[in-house]
């Protein structure tokens, strides 16, 4: 009998225990507060919170930060982009904890591996961030 690989498809809106842990340790918010914020997260709520936390930053600095977080350059910040930014900049977490969260963001099947499609998606996101449009030939993410 042949065994089939069972994978869990992870939606971008799911909040994993590892992600929750990183946010808890970097924000000092409770699990309940993080989950509530996760449910209503959008670019406007991020900008509002950022301005409250950093009133000394002007609009240009805020826009530059938002542009650096918006990795797919669609004009919005989704929760995964925010989480990736938070994990990458979480000085209170170890490097291993930050890398584990980033890995989990790309391991959408939650099988502990990055398969070819997940890697292609990661490479495409890197191309988006670098604004590389040519994805033919040796630049093909696959």
Automatic annotation (TrEMBL):
This is EF-hand domain-containing protein. Belongs to the recoverin family. SUPFAM superfamilies: EF-hand. The keyword Repeat applies. Residues 57-92, 94-129 form the EF-hand domain. Keywords: Calcium, Lipoprotein, Metal-binding, Myristate, Repeat. GO terms for molecular function: calcium ion binding. It comes from the Eukaryota. It comes from Adineta steineri.
């Amino acid at each position: 009998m042949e065994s089939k690989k069972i994978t869990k498809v992870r939606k971008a809106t799911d909040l994993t225990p590892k992600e929750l842990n990183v946010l808890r340790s970097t924000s000092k918010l409770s699990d309940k507060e993080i989950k509530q914020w996760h449910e209503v997260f959008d670019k406007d709520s991020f900008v509002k919170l950022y301005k409250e936390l950093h009133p000394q930053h002007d609009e240009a600095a805020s826009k530059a930060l938002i542009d650096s977080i918006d990795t797919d350059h669609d004009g919005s910040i989704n929760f995964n982009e925010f989480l990736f930014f938070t994990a990458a900049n979480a000085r209170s977490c170890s490097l291993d904890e930050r890398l584990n969260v980033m890995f989990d963001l790309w391991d959408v099947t939650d099988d502990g591996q990055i398969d070819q499609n997940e890697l292609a998606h990661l490479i495409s996101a890197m191309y988006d961030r670098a604004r590389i449009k040519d994805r033919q030939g040796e630049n093909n993410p696959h």
